[in-house]
Amino acid sequence: MALQGTFPLLPLDELVQTCVGFGCSIAHDDLARPTPARTQAIYEWWMERLLGLRAEDVRRAADAQLDQLDYADIYRDAMYIGVFQIAFQQLTQPSGLGDFTLRDLTHPTSKRIVQVLSAIVNFYFFQEEQGDRVFRPLEDEFEKLVQEEGVLIEENEQLREKIAAEREARARNAEIMKQDEPNERARVEALQQKREQSLETIKAREALRADIQALRQRRHEVGQDVSRLELGISELRSQIVSSPDKLRSRIDEMHDMLQREMERLKETEVKERQTTNKINALAQYSIELHACIRLLDDWQNDVHKLREAELRLGEHQDHLRALEAEQVELENRIQLLERRITNGRDELVRIKDKMERKKDSARSRRKALEDAHAENLRRKERLDMEAAEKNAQAAEVEQQIRGMHASLQSELEKGEKAFKRIKDQVTLYSIRLNKALDSVNELNSLAPEF
């Protein structure tokens, strides 16, 4: 094979067999004697095969450009050829053929089309050989996606377990609060009652303290009266010698007064004992009241704890709702990743199968091409001899065609001269006819009137 640039040029028959093996509808004459229409059809097939661009897509792009021009029909074919040439360069440039021009479409030659197709075929084989290099990163990415899928599934399970535990705790707390709600109301009502009773007890203690203070004041006054009586008795004892009768009456009065004071003192002592008993009872009640107050404080703390628990429960509920929303988002993300992984698996399997088929086909084609190459060399020698004979025959035919062309050209010149003479005669006859018509018109205008 002769080398051209960075790719080998395939022999004509080998190139035809290779293209037919790929599925391209091509014949030997399409490469030996190419025509613009057939060459463009072959290039369209390869562009659709390797680039995924169809002729209809190129036609739509060309029509879109024609909308900006006046008299679009005049430029329609030229615009399509130009757009097709730009699109086809996306295939020829990566293939190592950077000089593809419009002339390759409008005036194709056998040498040029063989060069273009050889570049495309060699690039196609190179692309097939690079399949493993492309396939390996895809497999690594697939493994990475599988690992990410496992991590996401594990995180999803943990979140589900956490959400289930939160729901169970929420249900237990709700049940406990529902069961304890009547007791809590009763405790709150009892607390209010105890507070009212404690206020009343405090008021009673203040009243008792006032009574005790009054009794102490009264006792002090009674003591002062007793002291005054003792002083009076002392005075009476000093006066007993001077006035016995008067003293006796005075003693009787003092005795009566003393009896009354003693009775009042006894009543005061009784009241004091009663007040002391009341004070002791109030002290005991105060102790019990303090115990109740401590119990109420404990209940109040329990109420605060329950309220804090309600607040924490609300926070947990908000957190649970956030976790549920996050779970929904994660589930959607997991579903999206599962779809991507499934699509990636299918795509990898499809690519792998396609690569295997293409490798097997390429190996068999390469083997067939290598086997056919030797045969083609032998055929080439025979065809060169036949081509020499055909060239000699073609030279003879060309000489005959040139003779026929010369005779035809002479006949054409004679016909042109005869046509010119006829044209001159017709022109002269037309001039004479016009003059005759003018004479007739003049005679008609000069005719006598009757």
TrEMBL record:
InterPro entries: Kinetochore_Nuf2_N, Nuf2_DHR10-like, Nuf2_N_sf
Kinetochore protein Nuf2 N-terminal domain sequence ranges: 6-130
Chain coiled-coil ranges: 205-278, 306-425
Domain Nuf2 DHR10-like: 256-370
Main localization of the protein described in the UniProt heading: nucleus
Keyword Flavoprotein (UniProt): no
Biological process terms in GO annotation: attachment of mitotic spindle microtubules to kinetochore; cell division; kinetochore organization; meiotic chromosome segregation; mitotic spindle organization
GO molecular function, one term: protein-containing complex binding
Localization per Swiss-Prot or TrEMBL: Chromosome, Centromere, Kinetochore; Nucleus
Family membership: Belongs to the NUF2 family.
Identification of the protein by name: Kinetochore protein Nuf2
Organism, as annotated: Rhodotorula paludigena
Lineage: Eukaryota, Fungi, Dikarya, Basidiomycota, Pucciniomycotina
